[in-house]
Amino acid sequence: MKIMISIAAVFFTMSSYVSAQTPDRSRGQGYVFAAPGIGNYELGKPNIHIGIGGEGFIYRGLGIGAEIGGVGSDRVVGLGSANLSYHFFPRKTGDRLEPFVTAGYSLFFRAGLSGGYNAGGGFNLWLNKDLALRIEIRDQHSHRFETVSFRIGVTFR
């Protein structure tokens, strides 16, 4: 729990850097997602990862973010991450397609902690100024757990 609080503190501290951007740029965004996938902790059974996260832009398309959620089918494991991301066309809020890549630290938790890494990519398809369809593929690994998922969600600014 201390690690999750630390990640949230870093996220909110870094968000102060975003305030120097011009008014026609997005300073950050939040998202919710559901992600069917497959992992190694339930004998290869399909799983679903549901979560919420956010990113703040620190320089042009470079962002820092955090997310938290649960993943599993019969047995749910908590999963949080702290990531760096790069959004390729974040310059104006009017751009419709926003591809991105992301990588960072992952933490699986349930009756103990299992740290590792994650990497992925996808895009936001902006439906209007403040709402987008989010499509992403994310691979998350630790020494105990692994999950690869196809995420679909909503991004908002």
Topology (SSEs and partners):
Layout lengths: L1 H13 L13 E12 L6 E14 L2 E11 L3 E12 L9 E13 L3 E16 L2 E12 L3 E11 L1
Antiparallel strand pairs: 1-2, 1-8, 2-3, 3-4, 4-5, 5-6, 6-7, 7-8
Explain what this protein looks like in three dimensions.
The protein is mostly beta strands and 157 residues long. The chain has a single domain (2-156), classed as Porin. It has one helix and eight strands; from the N terminus they run αββββββββ. The protein has an eight-stranded antiparallel beta barrel with strand order 1-2-3-4-5-6-7-8. A hairpin with a 3-residue loop joins strand 7 (131-142) and strand 8 (146-156).
What's the gist of this structure?
With 157 residues, this protein is mainly beta. It is built from 1 helix and 8 strands. The protein is globular.
Main structural class: mainly beta
Strand order of the largest sheet: 1-2-3-4-5-6-7-8
Number of domains: 1
CATH architectural group: Beta Barrel
Count of helical stretches: 1
Poorly predicted tracts of residues: 10-23
Share of residues in strands: over 45%
| Fraction of helical residues | under 10%
Strands, total number: 8
The span between the termini is: 27 Å
**Mean of the pLDDT scores?**
85
- CATH T-level topology: Porin
Please identify the top-level CATH class. Mainly Beta
Q: Largest beta sheet, briefly?
A: 8 strands, antiparallel, barrel
